[in-house]
Amino acid sequence: NLLISFNMYCHNFDTTREDACLDNVVSNLSKNKVKCQVIEPNVSDHAGINTEFYELHFSNTVPDKNILKRKVRDLSFGAIEGLKHRLNQTDWWQLTFFQTVDDAFDFFIQILISSLKECCPVKDDKIKSRNRPKVDWFTPELYKLKNIVKVFYDRFKISKGTENEVEHKKMYIEIKKMYKNRIKEEKRLATDRYIMRAPNKCKAAWSIIKKKIHCKKESVEELIKPDDFNDYFINIVSTTHLKQNNFDTAIELLSNYLSRFNNASKTFQLNVITEFEIIKYVSKLSGSKSEDYFGFSNKIIKDIIPYIVKPLTFLFNWMLSEGIFPKALKCSKVVPVYKKGGSKADPA
Questions:
Q1: Hey, which of 22, 34, 96, 290 would disulfide with 11, CB 3.0 to 4.6 Å?
Q2: pTM of structure
């Protein structure tokens, strides 16, 4: 009843070991589509089950596991041109209607975000994973030899306590030893083939060496203990004798130097930012496509700066005159990067 609740069925009801039915075949096919037949054991104390399935349908389309999807923003020529046109048609004089620089910056950011989402949407991009080449050493001959080892092991296991136990054990050990030696030989040959076929043979060889030896850096022996190092500089003060005359002279020179700034002005004023300066410094940004908190990258800003330089100049000068740093500019995007060798669950 439990299997039926999951749409699963048992197909064998004959005994497979003495008088018990210990082996079975379970599937989601109905009984009239499956035929089971118990076969006498050869090297095991359990009987085998020969199963035939009818009316099976297999799909010809096999999903490619190497194909992955990632989110990519559309930065094609048409998308960027559409964004430029959208920003060029925006009425930026609405910024002058706001009472605070915070509200004006929020409005400016929202206009940019809505325009970016409409003209340069984020879409799924199919990429193929870059699987590193593997050294294939497990050949069909090894697979056959492995099955032979299993057969000899089953014979040895069944013969325990009988007169043939010693002989079967000896045969099993010999065939197992031959199997291990064959594995070593196939690994060596596969490694040679991998290195010879690699475009950079030296790099391929070192990648295998590093994988095999798992070399660890030896810890450098401490030449001096940290406590001794700190104690030295703490105690050196008490052993140093400064002459009083030199000390007084140093104080007098410092006082004379500081007296020059007594009448200096303690205020300063920032110059007005111009459109030319904004374009100049934006042009020096790298062409990185890494996006910030709002979805903008250096590449996008460099492309659209001629169309937003006027509102930016107005907002920056307003910000400096009021002495207020807008809340919209205090948002940042932090991406933790996993460091090799550490635990991914460790926040440190």
A1: 34
A2: 0.45
